[in-house]
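We treat protein structure as text, and this decision shapes the records that our systems exchange. Because each token names a local backbone shape, the row as a whole describes the fold. For reference, a complete record is included directly beneath this paragraph.
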Amino acid sequence: MARYSYQPINVSKCFPDLWPKRQIIINRPHDIAKIFDDQAFSTFLGINVMPLIYDEKEQKCNILVFDYVAAKKNTARIEKLSSGSGRKHPVFLFMDAEDGYICEVRYGNASANALQRGLWTDTKKAIRHFHSVTNGWIDYTHNRTLVKLFSHALVSSNPGHEAALQQLGADIDRIRKGGLK
């Protein structure tokens, strides 16, 4: 339920004058807009992040969608962190006006692994920048069919998703008209 770009973002091209500095904060709206308008960010609009968060002990789940357009609009500060927490590579934190975490861009050089580069977010820290598709947590204790549906949706194609949506839409219409659940 998540699709990631095959190419890591090249943040050094986006922030060429920032790399020599130890720590930097960008908080002018014009400068933030310029960063988001950079070619390095062009693929972000094509990335769909829709995590399925689950609590196996409680047997409940929540499906969230990261709203990149809103995140872009709500970014009030970008802070470059170069050291701390065993960090080998810089991280750019994107924060909102209330100093809340939105997302981060990690940039590592050729020695960096996949976890040390690219656009990342944390659903717990950035929950207000996500939309819950399921309107919150849903219980799947006695609904193994729902679990199977999710597992199939994760590996099926876009045409398969469209066909399933048509079937589900017809079922919802039937229920609205007084049909049995």
